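Note to self: keep these together.
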Amino acid sequence: MLKRIAAIIFTMACAYGAFHLTMNQSFVNPYPVVCDLVLDKIYLPNKEISGWHRKCMERAELVTPYTKKNLILRDINNTLSLLQVSHLEIYDAPEVRGIWRGEVKETGLSGEFVDSELVIFKVLPQSPAERLGFKKGDIIVTINGEQPSSWAVESEAGDYQIHRGQEVFTIKLHPGVVKRNENMQISKLSERSALLEVPSFRAEFFTDEKVKKVSQELKKYQSVVVDLRNNAGGNFVAGLRFLSLFICEPTLVGKLEKPKSNLGKAEMPDILNDEKQLEILEKSREVNLRTFRSPSCFAGNVKVLVDGRTSSVAEMVSQALKEYRGAPLRGAPSRGQLLVGVWYPMDEVGQGVQISIPEALYISGKGHRIEGHGVQLDKVLYYNLPQMQAGIDSWVKSFQD
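Structure:
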């Protein structure tokens, strides 16, 4: 009997040992891969980040075959954040889909604090929030009994206490998959002026047909307010196509510099394909960003709105409109995040996981560096609570007064 029990224990021990041996042999620690890839690709000089690289490799030693993927991702991002540059982050597969396809699980609400009150600025069409009757101008008092934040309203599930007029009530809200319509949209402000909302500079929204449609619509007006609030950027050629609606002759509005490259200069062609743009960047130390000839350029007055979420290519566009069209920039300081992030798959972590590494920096045509500084605002604006509750955008109104 004892021999039988010993044999069973021995067999289990062998199986356990074989399992762990297989796990250790098949495991590839993604952390050192990230450390080395960032050191090799990032635009910063190696001598400036050698200390960071040592810390990164020290963190890598703490990872085992049994460390959970979400913990690895979180720790890598914490380590990447030590460099304090934009466009340097590792993303899980669902986050990648949300960024590139515009498909994210969210409530459909967008809000900002005005006089210490969190006011709903926008309710996305066909979103969970719209279906439940949320309205622009509603004040969110609490979420699940807690003080709300402008970020929480976009994705947090639970009980939303709402203040609307004289009413206070609660709506139970759960996020869902929302397909955002981020096409450019023009709305009439007066007989002479219009608001042009630009939610994104993703390539799909700047095809020849869509740009031409906006160009034709702008002909009806003498003045336009370009709304780049909450625009996180996108494709550089999309930004140049947009600028070409307002800058009538081909104009060098800025350049991308890749310090670690020993190659020559290039001109960014009128090609929306992201991979083609990266190919040009890969073969160049400097890439000039020049607007394209436009047969029906808007010659009227241009004004621009930005906020704390205006980022990347949207900042390039804002600064260029200021420098080359004299457009006044109003709103809140932009994010100051304008580097060229190149995406790499990280299959060592998991299927669909990708990392963005900034390999080039942007300098405007007049020499302004946006990374870390933001655009050059002409006037800081503050929202008016009664107007926002009434559904009136006080920032847009500031350009009409």
